[in-house]
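Support request, priority: normal
Reporter: lab tech (M.K.)
Component: structure prediction queue

Hi team, I submitted a job for Cyclic nucleotide-binding domain-containing protein from Runella rosea yesterday, and the status page still shows it as pending. I've pasted the exact input below so you can check whether something in the sequence is tripping the parser. The sequence length should be 238 residues. Please let me know if I need to resubmit or if it's stuck on your end.
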Amino acid sequence: MYNITLTMKPLLHLSIHFSNICNQKGRNLHPAFNITSLPPMSYVRHYLETFHLVTDEQYAQIAPYEKEILTLKKGEYFLKAGEVTNQMGLVIEGVLANNYIDNGQEKIQYFLSKNEVAANPESFDFRTPSKVSIRALSTCHLVVIDHPTYWKLVEILPWWGQLTRTIGSVVLTKRLQKRAELMTMRPTERYEAFSIENPNILQQVPLGMIASYLGIQPPSLSRIRRKQLQRNRSLKEI
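Reply from support: The job had stalled in the queue. We restarted it manually and it finished. Here are the results:
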């Protein structure tokens, strides 16, 4: 049995590699990475390999445990607010929104796309009703692991629980850092940064949802987007 010692050095190593993942967002991490050609475990392996913390023997230990590919149609929920989370999923195609309702209005916390994990850790771990929903904004495919299987792995493979908690911590930290960084920018800069880093989301998500995530009023974002498109057309004509 293997045991990962999670010191600050591997945590920093993990943080650096997660930054690289963010830079590749929306792109395949492997040239043959498509939904029909690989079994579910292969997607999990590709994802974990980006963190460089798991050995071949450890992959062999988790491979026998059942995982399946879940398909969601646009508008379907991976998780509804008020429900207890019974699964977590690795997105292999599509875009989902993590959102909540505030005074009757939908607020977008963040978007999830390829090579990101859809889950509500608090609800999943402590069996409490989720305060947020996760909804498909396009046709989505996810490799899912259910609650009993996850905790069976934790019981027999201590390194699995340590690894997933560390990855979850780094992902959350990076997400909060990105959000804080965006909020220090002017609205135009926010949209430009978002459009550069998330072209796939930009093409699949309504502008009103992007406005909610960026904290910009929809009419203002429409003007910003229109000016950006006009500027891009002018540059092409030069």
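Residues 85 and 149 are 13 Å apart (CA to CA). Residues 1-34 have pLDDT under 50 and may be disordered. Let us know if anything else looks off. Ticket resolved.
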